[in-house]
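TICKET: design request
STATUS: open
ATTACHED STRUCTURE:
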């Protein structure tokens, strides 16, 4: 009888723990990197690759809808002359969209509740996407139609190349998070200097350098966000944060297009 009890206890010791038992102790996280969400950058060991693949497919499905909406708005504002003339003569619409963009972005970025709770996360992301697409369309309306199409093609090629590189390379680009933040802050101050202290067109070479550095910086951000989405790096995004992942990558792509348009686009003189 004693031997049976001993054998049974040994068999029980060999049974793997349940998911609840395995995760009961919690997991280490990089707190403070994102306001209000310490779990987002947690260093999980994602043994179940199926979860990560489903997460990536979900992110790119949302991203494709966002980019389709943006492309449609840019095409409307670029090819339709009445819409182009109306939006250029009523700049108040742009600033209204900018306020909506900032409000929805900060809500999704800071608060985990609205970002994770369906359907509010999809509603806020849709409003955010429409607002940013509208702003991108307004910006595109001031440039020549041909140059806008060329810049769209260049952006698509660059983003595809950066994405493939991020998936294939063994370099951990998430480790340069601090450097990217410092560079983004410096670029923001430079942009503010160009907008406030200098008259538009007075120093064209400075604007070109600003646009070139901005495009390079957000290519690095795109690689950074792509690798965080993939996992197995220093900083990763939880599979629950598919809204945040789609928002980040979409914002990177739109900024890359905006800087390339500012750098290579020809303004419409008509």
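STATUS: resolved
RESOLUTION: sequence designed for all positions
ATTACHED SEQUENCE:
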């Amino acid at each position: 009888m004693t031997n049976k009890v001993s054998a049974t206890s040994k068999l029980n010791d060999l049974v793997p723990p349940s998911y609840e038992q395995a995760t009961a102790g919690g997991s280490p996280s990089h707190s403070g990197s994102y306001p209000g969400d310490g779990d987002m950058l947690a260093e999980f060991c994602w043994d179940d690759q199926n979860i990560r693949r489903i997460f990536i497919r979900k992110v790119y499905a949302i991203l494709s809808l966002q980019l389709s909406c943006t492309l449609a708005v840019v095409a409307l504002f670029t090819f339709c002359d009445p819409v182009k003339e109306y939006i250029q003569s009523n700049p108040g619409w742009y600033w209204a969209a900018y306020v909506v963009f900032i409000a929805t972005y900060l809500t999704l970025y800071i608060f985990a509740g609205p970002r994770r709770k369906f359907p509010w996360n999809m509603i806020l992301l849709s409003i955010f996407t429409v607002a940013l697409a509208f702003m991108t369309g307004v910006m595109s309306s001031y440039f020549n139609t041909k140059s806008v199409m060329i810049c769209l093609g260049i952006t698509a090629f660059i983003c595809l190349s950066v994405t493939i590189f991020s998936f294939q390379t063994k370099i951990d680009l998430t480790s340069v998070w601090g450097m990217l933040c410092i560079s983004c802050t410096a670029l923001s101050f430079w942009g503010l200097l160009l907008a406030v202290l200098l008259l538009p067109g007075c120093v064209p070479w400075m604007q070109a350098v600003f646009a070139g550095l901005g495009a390079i910086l957000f290519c690095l951000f795109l690689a950074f966000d792509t690798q965080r989405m993939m996992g197995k790096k220093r900083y990763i995004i939880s599979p629950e944060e598919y809204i945040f992942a789609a928002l980040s990558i979409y914002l990177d792509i739109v900024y890359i297009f905006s800087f390339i348009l500012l750098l290579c686009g020809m303004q419409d003189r008509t």
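CLOSING REMARK: The two ends are 96 Å apart (CA to CA). Confidence is low (pLDDT under 50) at residues 1-47.
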